[in-house]
Automatic annotation (TrEMBL):
One of its GO terms (molecular function) is hydrolase activity. The keyword Ribonucleoprotein does not apply. This is Alpha/beta hydrolase. Keywords: Hydrolase. Gene3D superfamilies: alpha/beta hydrolase. It comes from Nocardioides dubius. The keyword Hydrolase applies. It holds the Pfam family Abhydrolase_1. InterPro entries: AB_hydrolase_1, AB_hydrolase_fold, Carboxylesterase_BioH. Residues 35-260 form the AB hydrolase-1 domain.
Length: 287
């Protein structure tokens, strides 16, 4: 993996996860304030964090975005290894080469990977969980799984794919077809999302998942910010309460009018809160 200093212009970069899978990403910024690593959610890609990464770079951070295994331009796992522990391994080379202090930001399934990555041995100065926590609501997970399952047969046109996203969040306006085109690939005259359909076949036992992620979080004393999308069913007051049992000092912010996103969506709305959180940590270190 290249160690050359990036600029504000995105520099494509690739690396190999410990199990040999090729991971595709981009690096922006010089890193005077440290490194922010953005992990996307299931059925998203690195493009969901692109605008946030550009702002992070402009603010003085090295920002890294990447396609997790089975998504976008990264390799599919031949054996279907898409567990959160497997996804965390994709972060290992990034953590080794990152300019400290390092902040991990994980959206949805990317949050699971960010928590698991704490066990990889690199000191992390702050963790941001975006619309995810160790304990999630079955209704929210079911909504996403139904969307994914309904997408497996593909679409005749990008407009159909955009309409499918609208069904996932019926209270939100469906995105324009142009917003999802980059997330689609054509095969046999049909359009498919650019992710391996096996990615949502893992971790069906939500109780086991919650206990495992709680156990990891309990081993590390680090600041945690939870950003909860008000219009999403993924989290509940129970989710927040359980997180605070493990990390009593966790900061929680609720964003009104925001729903859970998947293919073609952008996570840029969260950056201001992420930046505020990191800035507060910098201030605490300087006191």
């Amino acid at each position: 993996m290249s160690t050359s200093r990036p600029t504000l212009e995105a520099a494509p970069t690739t690396w190999r996860a410990p199990d040999g899978l090729r991971i595709a990403g981009e690096r922006l910024g010089s890193g005077e304030r440290g490194t922010v690593i953005f992990a996307h959610g299931i059925a998203q890609s690195r493009h969901s964090w692109r605008k946030a990464a550009a702002e992070a770079a402009a603010a003085g951070f090295a920002a890294v975005i990447f396609d997790s295994r089975g998504h976008g331009d990264s390799d599919h796992a031949p054996g279907g290894e898409y567990s959160s522990a497997g996804n965390a391994q994709d972060l290992a080379p990034l953590l080794v080469s990152a300019t400290a202090p390092v902040y991990l930001v994980g959206y949805s399934q990317g949050g699971d990977a960010a928590i698991e990555a704490l066990d990889l041995g690199t000191v992390v100065s702050g963790l941001v969980l975006v619309d995810v926590a160790p304990w999630v609501e079955p209704a929210g997970v079911g909504d996403v799984q139904r969307f994914l399952e309904a997408s497996l047969s593909g679409f005749d046109a990008a407009e159909q794919a955009a309409a499918a996203l609208g069904l996932l969040n019926p209270d939100q306006p469906a995105p324009p077809a142009t917003a999802v085109t980059r997330s689609l690939v054509e095969r046999d005259a049909r359009l498919y999302w650019r992710w391996d359909p096996r990615v949502f076949d893992t971790d069906p036992d939500l109780d086991a998942r919650g206990r495992r992620l709680d156990a990891v979080l309990s081993r590390f004393e680090l600041p945690v910010l939870l950003l909860r999308a008000r219009e999403s069913q993924m989290l509940s007051d129970r989710s927040v309460a359980r997180l605070r049992e493990v990390r009593p000092g966790a900061e929680v912010r609720v964003l009104d009018g925001v729903a859970h996103g998947v293919s073609g969506s952008t996570n840029h709305v969260y950056w201001r809160h992420i930046h505020d959180f990191i800035t507060s940590l910098e201030g605490a270190r300087n006191d």
